[in-house]
Amino acid sequence: MGNALIHSISGSAVVASLLVAGCSGTGSGKLSGQGAAYNGGSIVGGPRQHYALGSQRSKAIRVTPNRTYQNVSVTAPAPVPLKLPTSLLAEVRVHKDYLPRSARGRRGQSSMRPRYITIHSTQNWSRGADSWRHSLALKGSKLGSLSWHYTVDENGAVQHLPTNITGRHADLNGPGNKYSIGIEMCEHRGNSRTRTVDRTAKLAAYLMYKYDIPLTKVVPHYHWPRRGMSPAHKNCPHFLLDNGRPGRKWRGFQAKVKKYHDLITIQGPAYASR
Ligand SMILES: [Zn+2]
């Protein structure tokens, strides 16, 4: 399937545009107040409050034997999340298409235990520049040494790297690269931004669950200062920032992520026993 898509993609023109448009690189953003501190998010009720799973394991309830039914034990129905994490992940429709070890984007990488999730947008408006096209460019070393973990578009997502190794998408040799999973959102012509953002929120929520990452550590690329570059804080993902920095739009995205994370972590009512 991937091959069919990839082969249907023509062209050096778009690949060339990828070279200049990748959000993770040196592109400049129009940003005022560069260098201003950003605390990584302001949604209340953050990190661990949603992690109730560990304390709510099901327990077998012994029913006192009586004369009629001796030694009968009944296991209470386990509380279940409103949605299974695997169901949420299935909705994202992730296809794995890893960079080969020979690709430039995989050179010099190290192992990682993810502590953050960094959200980007591709700033690539070329026709057809979807997640598969970016995968093709990364695999063909068309984006220099850049690499990240997922690219999301309106129809699905492609995973380019395992989440236990580092990418190069945020801040040169900084903590954004060393400790975060990088997710790029496509913005080519005809791609639904709403659906892409929604899918990205689902993916971020699943990764929060999987790696025990709090909402405050789901951050825009802006969060990571890039040493020696101007502006240090990139206007990325530009359409989720207000005047180049996190504000109302970013809080809206955080709320969306939280909504999906709650779905897979907050326990629903147990199924009634019959
Ligand atoms: Zn970025």
Please estimate the helix content: 25-40%
Annotated CATH homologous superfamily of one domain? Peptidoglycan recognition protein-like
Distance between the termini: 45 Å
- Which CATH architecture of one domain? 3-Layer(aba) Sandwich
CATH class of one domain: Alpha Beta
Cα Rg: 21 Å
Structural class: alpha/beta
Give the amount of beta strand, in percent.
Answer: 5-15%
Could you list some keywords that capture this structure?
274 residues; alpha/beta; Lysozyme-like; 6-stranded mixed β-sheet; 7 helices; binds zinc ion
In terms of topology, how is this protein built?
Elements: H1 2-8, H2 12-21, E1 60-62, E2 73-75, H3 85-92, E3 94-96, E4 116-121, H4 131-139, E5 150-152, E6 157-159, H5 175-179, E7 180-185, H6 193-211, E8 218-220, H7 248-265
Parallel strand pairs: 3-6, 4-7, 4-8, 5-7
Antiparallel strand pairs: 1-2, 5-6
Helix pairs in contact: 3-6, 6-7
The site of zinc ion has 6 residues, from loops.
